[in-house]
């Protein structure tokens, strides 16, 4: 009975959307990424930096899948407002609480779209002279790689469209979904005018 009530409540809040990556596909890929990270950072204790807010679920799953010792910190940068269009240079909303000079650092991003946010963060962190700086992105939306923006670990390459879930939002909605779904243009346009 309780389960039924919960299902009804969830369905009411959610529009129809195409599931691009199921919770199971994500879970498996997170473990594969963790395996690569274990191998590459075997003798190190990296600072794992989750980029808020979008990466909060990914970083929580990834750090539990990784076996090597590591420290966790967070930064917050805003690339988008409430809508779906990029709006100028990323703004730093929250900085690290640890010193990364001489440390190995792994940036954790949920999605790289234009690459502006990750480029900005990399520049900012490189200026603090870490011993090593690498990045992991669950989703890479770019059509082509960019030698100026290395991403050492990529979960999935995805095509266009606006994706939500597993931390990713549209105007703060849908972050809680355990899967990644694609909204259609009508759904995202409605949001642009409703906020
Ligand atoms: C999203 C996402 C990345 C960035 C990617 O963050 O989490 O940080 O955009 O876009 P880019 O490659 O075009 O720069 P957003 O600003 O939406 O904030 P959020 O993480 O709080 O959702």
Summed up, what is this model?
By secondary structure, this protein is of the alpha/beta class.
> Mean of residue pLDDT?
88
How much of the sequence lies in strands comes to 25-35%
What is the SS-derived class? alpha/beta
Helix content: 25-40%
Rg, Å, rounded: 17 Å
The helix/strand order is HEHEHEEEHEEEEH
Low-confidence stretches: 5-9
Strand order of the largest sheet: 4-3-2-5-6-7
- What is the number of beta strands? 9
Distinct compounds present: 1-O-pyrophosphono-5-O-phosphono-alpha-D-ribofuranose
Distance between the termini: 35 Å
Which terms would index this structure?
alpha/beta; 30% strand; 195 residues; 3-stranded antiparallel sheet; single chain; binds 1-O-pyrophosphono-5-O-phosphono-alpha-D-ribofuranose; 6-stranded mixed sheet
SSE blueprint:
Layout: H1 2-13, E1 18-21, H2 23-40, E2 47-52, H3 56-65, E3 71-80, E4 86-94, E5 104-112, H4 116-126, E6 132-140, E7 153-157, E8 162-164, E9 180-183, H5 185-194
Parallel strand pairs: 2-3, 2-5, 5-6, 6-7
Antiparallel strand pairs: 1-9, 3-4, 8-9
The structure holds 1-O-pyrophosphono-5-O-phosphono-alpha-D-ribofuranose.
1-O-pyrophosphono-5-O-phosphono-alpha-D-ribofuranose binds next to strand 2, strand 3, strand 5 and helix 4.
């Amino acid at each position: 009975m309780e389960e039924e009530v919960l299902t009804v409540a969830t369905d009411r809040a959610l529009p129809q959307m195409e599931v691009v990556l199921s919770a199971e596909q994500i879970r498996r890929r997170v473990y594969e990424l963790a395996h690569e990270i274990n191998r590459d950072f075997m003798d190190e204790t990296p600072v794992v930096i989750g980029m808020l807010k979008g990466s909060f679920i990914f970083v929580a799953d990834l750090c539990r899948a990784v076996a090597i010792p590591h420290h966790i910190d967070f930064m917050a940068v805003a690339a988008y407002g409430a809508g779906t269009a990029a709006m100028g240079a990323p703004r730093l909303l929250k900085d690290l609480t640890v010193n990364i000079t001489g440390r190995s650092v792994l940036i954790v991003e949920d999605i790289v779209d234009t690459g502006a946010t990750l480029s900005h963060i990399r520049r900012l962190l490189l200026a603090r002279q870490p011993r090593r700086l690498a990045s992991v992105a669950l989703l890479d939306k770019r059509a082509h790689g960019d030698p100026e923006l290395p991403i050492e670990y990529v979960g999935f390459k995805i095509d266009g469209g606006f994706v939500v879930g597993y931390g990713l939002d549209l105007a703060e909605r849908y972050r809680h979904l355990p899967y990644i779904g694609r909204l259609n243009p009508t759904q995202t346009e409605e949001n642009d005018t409703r906020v």
